[in-house]
Design brief:
Length: 397
């Protein structure tokens, strides 16, 4: 098949969405399909580069793009809303059999137009809980959320299939579309390169951070922003560390909350116990991840939580706050502990208690680690791409 993928942001900016699009493109290419990615062009002199997923690089059609101002992170480029460009003409000449959009906005509208022109089914993966980012809009958050929700419902209706990366999100979408269209909603999580992750040599963070050899290292990986709840992780480690002096925290990633988090880490109850890596290339981030003993995840704004699949594949048992997608990844009591999200007061204390369980019982922690690594093929990108491939074929039939 000829498959056109459209994306609102892309590599070299690293996010769950860009990694997902790259993994799908390369996975489809490995299955023999011809893939064209229509996405905003990287900055001058930059290349998209790999994100660590297996498979051949796709063809690219680059849309004119611009860098949004802060707090949007560097390298996050947006396409100009100009529908008639050389990239769009290239996508038309490509004559896709399937058009798969990964944003409902500028490139989503382009995808819809291109699908209609080619007589191809339009597939959409809903990667982002847009309402959870309303705090960036200030007083416009309320009206902005209402407009976005109404727009999304109309966009879903134009799609032959809507993919949700988790069962929780699929149920939410199904409730908001007319009953005849609910069969169009499919659960297909993003896959990860399990074999590649497990082949990464672990990097021990203890010497660089000045921690003792017997330190138990909890790891957090992701963008440091309010919607990801990184402060909950630091508060929980402070509480757990008061009971187990061996506990340390490695924070992998950067973002607008980093300065506040560094200030929190300098407080007496955390001083010397937290190390920040800042933003890292994905390969280096995985090296650091592999060097940990357990993973802590508190975000409540995910559609899947791709880092959970990566951490479990790396053999790190997870402590995760209950939320969208968490139940699809973490098997409570098997390869991690799922902490109730509510009531909100006391959430950090509950996370701390779960951290304490894993930190204080090495045998239990190792048992969970073994189960996580042994069963990680359930996250494999090859399996998830195969399901997507089958969906495309069913639509064409």
């Amino acid at each position: 098949m000829r498959i056109l993928l459209t994306a609102e942001s892309f590599l070299p900016y690293l996010s769950g969405v860009t990694v997902s699009v790259d993994a799908l493109a390369r996975g489809l290419g490995a299955r023999g399909h011809e893939v064209l990615v229509l996405a905003p062009a990287p900055a001058a002199a930059e290349e998209p580069g790999p994100a660590g997923s297996p498979g051949p690089a796709p063809r690219y059609a680059w849309l004119p793009s611009y860098q949004l101002p802060r707090p949007v992170p560097p390298r996050y480029r947006m396409p100009w809303p100009t529908p008639w460009t050389a990239a769009v003409r290239e996508a038309q000449r490509f004559a896709p059999d399937v058009v798969h959009a990964h944003s409902p906005f500028v490139t989503g509208l382009l995808a819809r137009r291109l699908a209609r022109g080619a007589g191809a089914p339009l597939v959409f993966t809903h990667h982002t809980r847009f309402a959870d980012y309303g705090h960036y809009l200030g007083p416009l958050a309320g009206p902005g959320a209402a407009l976005t929700e109404a727009y999304l419902a109309r966009f879903w209706s134009a799609c032959a299939a809507v993919i949700a990366p988790s069962t929780d999100l699929a149920a939410e979408i199904a409730e908001r579309v007319p009953p005849p269209r609910r069969r169009r909603v499919h659960v297909i999580p993003t896959g990860v390169d399990v074999a590649g992750i497990q082949a990464v040599a672990a990097g021990d963070p203890r010497p660089e951070a000045g921690w003792p050899p017997d330190a138990i290292v909890a790891v957090s990986l992701g963008r440091l922003a309010p919607e990801k709840s990184p402060m909950t992780v630091l508060d929980a480690v402070a509480l757990a560390g008061a009971r187990d002096s061996r506990l340390r925290l490695l924070v992998i990633g950067g973002g607008p909350s980093e300065s506040r988090l560094r200030a929190r880490a300098a407080a007496p109850d955390l001083a010397g116990r937290v190390a920040f890596t800042g933003m890292l290339p994905r390969a280096e981030a995985l090296v650091r991840l592999r060097g940990g003993d357990l993973f802590v995840f508190a975000s409540r704004t995910e559609t899947q939580g791709l880092v959970l699949a990566e951490a479990l594949s790396a053999g790190l048992p997870a402590v995760a706050v209950e939320g969208p997608g968490v139940g699809d990844s973490v098997r409570d009591g098997v390869d991690g502990i799922v902490v109730p999200a509510l009531p909100e007061p006391g959430r950090a204390q509950r996370v701390a208690a779960a951290i304490g369980v894993l930190a204080g019982d090495e045998a239990h922690r190792r048992q969970m680690s073994g189960r996580a690594a042994a069963d990680a093929d359930r996250f494999s990108v090859e399996a998830r791409v195969a399901v997507t491939d089958a969906l495309y074929r069913s639509l064409l039939r």
